[in-house]
Design a protein that fits this description.
The protein has 366 residues and is α/β, with parallel strands linked by helices. It has helices at residues 58-65, 98-107, 123-133, 135-147, 149-158, 165-172, 178-191, 193-211, 229-241, 259-274, 288-297, 318-322, 325-328, 354-365; strands spanning 17-26, 35-43, 47-51, 73-80, 89-92, 108-111, 247-251, 280-284, 300-306, 309-312. α3 packs across α8. It is globular.
Length: 366
């Protein structure tokens, strides 16, 4: 019989965790373990930032959390919500049938480092695509529109300059009152429910992106080949939001972006969390500026993935963290290579230097 999920941190009520990892080990054939008996609890209403050297397994860990990769040993637990306010359910992700796993992936979304957009589809079509496989999500959106017409109006207003005629007509009723909006909504749904619902969800997702300072609306009819790297990241976030996830995982969301675009993505991740569009965020990154932005606005925890184990960086002297080196690697790391400016060059899979460890620790303490 599968063991129960691990108990969350004493400061967090048990019912508030969303993901829990228990005795997790992952070994790929012919390689040393990526993780060894890892235990980690991710509370609700928190941003968890995971750092570590390239090639150490951070992206694989995110894939394990959503069931895309099987663990060698151990369990990943997800605490499922009940829309009717009933009891929550603890679900061992890797024991689910594929049909049930697909449902979990609507609640735990992932934004990959590579945008994974379909090149022959427009931005709008890429965002709409997941809804075709999850009609139940479309119904949840519609229920929300009916229950909260004021919120619907806010999203449509944010996207107003780029709406197709049918949605523009609906948006125009928002200036009248909620009853007129609700009546117009039902009329549109009765005429072409599926097509209209997809357009409406797309507009609301793009409107919400504008509300968190990530404008995608003006590019809704472009192909991915016409987008910058930063814009592809935005579209990847928008496509994931279309499924209304409770938990959102980000794999290096600011990698390869210029500072201005990276700052915009960081602010969007923060806004989505603060506005409770998502309940919990897990961010894999090398970007200290991203961490500082997230830390400034909400409860944020920083951990290291370090030679198969997680080290909690907050509230501990940096020397205590570095002391774990003896347990994680027998041979001492070579001195860090420097470029012409004196900055440390990072090599894939190389052990974190004391300079890098200390700089991350100082970020966590601010």
């Amino acid at each position: 019989m599968t063991a129960p999920p691990p108990t969350p941190h004493p400061d967090q009520p048990r019912e508030d965790y969303v993901l829990a990892v228990q005795n997790l080990t992952k070994v790929f054939p012919g390689q040393r373990p990526l993780y060894q008996c890892v235990n980690l609890v991710v509370p609700a209403d928190e941003i968890l930032v995971i750092v570590g050297e390239s090639g150490i397994g951070k992206s694989v860990f995110l894939s394990l959390l959503v069931g895309l990769v099987e663990p060698t040993e151990g369990e990943v637990w997800y605490r499922a919500s009940k829309d009717d306010g009933g009891p929550v359910i603890d679900i061992p992700i890797h024991e689910l049938a594929e049909q049930d796993m697909a449902r979990i992936r609507t609640e735990v979304g992932i934004v990959f480092q590579e945008s994974s957009l379909f090149d022959w589809m427009t931005v709008y079509e890429n965002i709409e695509l997941p809804l075709e496989k999850h009609p139940e999500v479309v119904e949840h959106w519609i229920e929300g529109f009916r229950a909260r017409p004021k919120e619907l109006c806010a999203h449509l207003t944010a996207a107003a300059h780029h709406l197709p005629p049918r949605l523009a007509a609906l948006a125009s009723t928002c200036s009248i009152d909620e009853r007129a909006t609700s009546t117009a909504l039902e009329e549109c749904l009765s005429l072409s429910r599926r097509e209209f619902a997809a357009e409406l969800i797309d507009a609301c997702v793009l409107g919400r992106m504008s509300e968190v300072r990530l404008d995608v609306v003006s590019d809704r009819n472009k192909l991915p080949s016409e987008l910058s790297g930063g814009m592809k990241t935005r579209v990847g976030i928008a496509r994931t939001l279309a499924l209304r996830p409770r938990v959102l995982l980000y794999d290096e969301p600011t990698a390869g972006l210029d500072p201005i675009m990276a700052k915009g993505v960081a602010n969007a991740i923060l806004d989505l969390q603060v506005q409770k569009v998502v309940r919990t965020s897990i961010v894999v990154t090398h970007d200290k500026e991203l961490y500082w932005t997230l830390r400034a606005g909400t409860r944020t925890r920083l951990i290291y993935l370090h030679r198969g184990r997680f080290l909690d960086a907050e509230g501990r002297p940096v020397n205590d963290i570095l002391a774990h080196r003896a347990h994680l690697r027998r041979d001492p790391p070579p001195p860090p290579a420097r470029d012409e400016s004196g900055s440390e060059r990072r090599e894939p899979g190389r052990f974190l230097s004391e300079f890098t460890m200390q700089s991350w620790y100082e970020a966590a303490r601010k």
